[in-house]
């Protein structure tokens, strides 16, 4: 089984001790890290030197980060196809973004986005339903009244996603 930690909307311009501590606490048992945009600065990915990292830029990223990371990405996680985008170009609200994901990632088994800071994890209807995940905002101060969250994606015989609140302290 492959275990992926998913985060988004970190909004940090530099690595700090608190972020490093939380990232280690939440993702130490993960093989892969997926960042769904708004890192702000690409140096944030240095927090995961021993992980495979898939990341996209978001609307709040600086120029260097936008140049270094794509706006959307598709990759394999085990036997599954995963599509990730920040989502800001697809709409402002979750329902609009989720409807647009089908056009962006028609072959994906799992579609991941950020931007709204609102954590969601659900499977679309049907026998071969797609898994849709927004990990929420991985930051120490829950913006827009949302809790600070992240997601875990497990790829085994099938894909399984789960949401988690950031541990306090």
Automatic annotation (TrEMBL):
Gene3D superfamilies: 3.60.21.10. It is an enzyme of class 3 (hydrolase). Its cofactor is a divalent metal cation. GO terms for molecular function: hydrolase activity; metal ion binding. Keywords: Metal-binding. Pfam families: Metallophos_2. Residues 3-155 form the Calcineurin-like phosphoesterase domain. Its EC number is 3.1.4.-. Belongs to the metallophosphoesterase superfamily. YfcE family. This is Phosphoesterase.
